[in-house]
# Entry
Amino acid sequence: MPFRCLYGADLQAIDSLLSESQAVQYDQKELAIAYIKKARELAEGVEDPKLMARINNQEGTVYYISGDYELALRRFLEAFDYAVQGDFISQKEYAMNGRALVLMVEREFELAKGLFEECIGINTIHGDSVRLARNHFNLGILHNELFELEKAMSHLDIALEFLVNFPKQGLNSMVNNRMAQVYFEMGEFDNALSKYRLVLEDSSSLTNWEKTFALTGLAQLKLETGDLDEALVLGKEALSTAEFHGANWDLQKITELLSAIYKAKGKFDKAYEFLELSQIYTDSLYNEEKSRQIARLHLKLSQAENEKLKAESEIDQAVLKQRNRLLVFLSLLILFLGFTVYFFRKTIRLKEKFNKSLEKKNRAIEKQKNYIGQQNKNLSEINLAKTKLLSIISHDLRSPINSIKQLLEMKGKGYFNEDDENEAYGLLTLQVENTEIMLNELLQWANSQLDGLEPNPSDVDLAEVVSEVLIGYSFQIKTKSLNAEHNGNKRIFIRIDRVQLKIILQNLIGNAIKFTPEHGIIKVYYVLEESYVICHIEDSGVGVDEHYNNLINSRSYTRMPSKVGTANEKGTGLGILLVKQFLDLNGGMLKMESKTEAGSHFILYFKR
# Structure
């Protein structure tokens, strides 16, 4: 039969059918089996070992719950074979756990215990808390069956610990039911009663299977304490629930208990009636033919495992023979190589002598080459630093020189009367003096930076430097009739390279002047924090759009597109780049808040 592909819709339908089967497996066996058969029909002809392992594991679970242990074992063995094909650990562990449950029914406790412990090892590696809880729960049942009550209770406690983060898991009810039974067998009737009631009160995860178990346990407890009427009521309710979901194991247990209750009440005809029913259910669970079939399946599995071990042994033997042949070959090869080395030893010695001489010369050449390369690298870095320094100097001198040029052009065109000319002369003199001071500072700083742009931090009065920069821009501020607000009376010290600080402030205050129209406002103020001094530079200018704002706030050193100022002032786009680089070098940072036609707000963080 050719294999076919499984499409998404079919796979989703199979997943849904398996989930539906799992949801009703404790309550409606026939419906659960019907869902699985439909899933098999959809998966027919599909080569998917993992899917087939899931289907067989779910069918094995339903048969186990309903007491059909021979069919359950068959499905778990088939699931195991499929899981091994693709090394699907989760499905393999599930099938091993199912096989161990059937072994417990057959009272093969040591074999079952070994499988449960192997499952614990697998689930511990994968950190699956729910499956670990299930494994310990099953070990609790095993020790309970052996009447090792302390060990049983220990494993059940561990199971509850693993389920602490999974309160809605139906496994909680199973664990509490089994703990109640162990308490009953220990003679701790109050604890048993508390646990059974806890199960029955948990309506969110209570299945008919667990309800039957709890009601049967309560009936048994009432029988033991002599409350026969209450025991009978509880027993009848348990029987009704068990008949609904059709689990033979539950039916056998409750009919046997009802027989004992009627016997204690002196109603021997009813006691005999339920005893016969109990025997029928017992025969359905443990008849000889089923035991022989299960035994044959276990034998078949053991033979398969032996065949696998035998095949692995034969492979190991073949590998060992191959290794021995390889060792013989390698021995002969080494012997041959030994003779070869002996005959060519003298030639090799001469070559080694020549190679040593050549290597010595090569090292000398390489050393010289590295020295020259380092010198070239140093020269390149110096040239790069010089280029950057020239860019910085030319950029920072551009604005004051333009101001001087603008004053001279206005003078040449006769824009000034005598009073204006005197004032302009004063501004020109101040601008020239400030430009000279700036040039001297830049040249002195540039001389110290020839080997690379490294900050030379010192304690600098931030407010004083801001005042110097504002004085340097006096002409531009006056020309545009701007209102520059700054309180420079308070001394605020920060740790920074003074020249780099001045370049930062000249660029940001220059931009504020450049992009603020006439009669606008520029504010500079400070906020002091424990580790930083925060300098705010706000203007009422044209602002920038979101794209330009994002470029400035990004961590990259991207050269900004140049924009024309409100009085047609031109720029290079280098200023913001220098601001970000110098702030980073001095451990500071820059943020900007701006919207088009709503002004700009630069926030500078300086280390104290």
Notes: The chain has 22 helices and seven strands. The chain has a mean pLDDT of 82. The longest strand covers residues 521-528. The first helix runs from residue 8 to 24.
